[in-house]
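subagent[fold] <- orchestrator: predict structure for attached chain, return tokens only, no commentary.
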Amino acid sequence: MTIQREIIGAPREVKGFHWVYAACFCVLLNTLVNAAIASDGKHNIKNDINKQPMNVLFIAIDDLRPELGCYGKSHINSPNVDALAKQGLQFNRAYCQFALCNPSRASLLTGRYPDSIKIYNLETFLRTNSPNVVTLPQFFKQSGYEARSIGKIFHVTNGNHEDDISWSKRAWQR
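subagent[fold] -> orchestrator:
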């Protein structure tokens, strides 16, 4: 089976993968990472933290597709997520950087393409080829936020492991 996907308008073929749409907030995270990197220092999280820091909740869900009430699916009973979507910012388009979990999650959490961080499989650890990369949770932690992970944010299966430097407390702990 051959599927087509587009990266920056250039079609590429990915052979042998059957993939389901992944629902994620790629646009939000890439915007936050890029804003943090491109900030001139006048309006960034670190300088605004003494005012009133925003609470940030990132929910990563594998293979959900937009099958929720907030996406118009009346056969799905999801009142809590629907209420959260009404109060926050809902994205109606999701994009995936790569047709595998690890490269896609690493790209999402660093704001870099899989080609630049050299992650193309499930086994490569995030910092193997980019040891000094700053991840989104690491950036929030460095900016005075408590960054916690409960569940799968980085790809932690297939021999891969969690990125402890990104979190305020070791991931998966309550």
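orchestrator: received. Logging for downstream: The first strand starts at residue 2 and ends at 7. Residues 2-166 form one domain.
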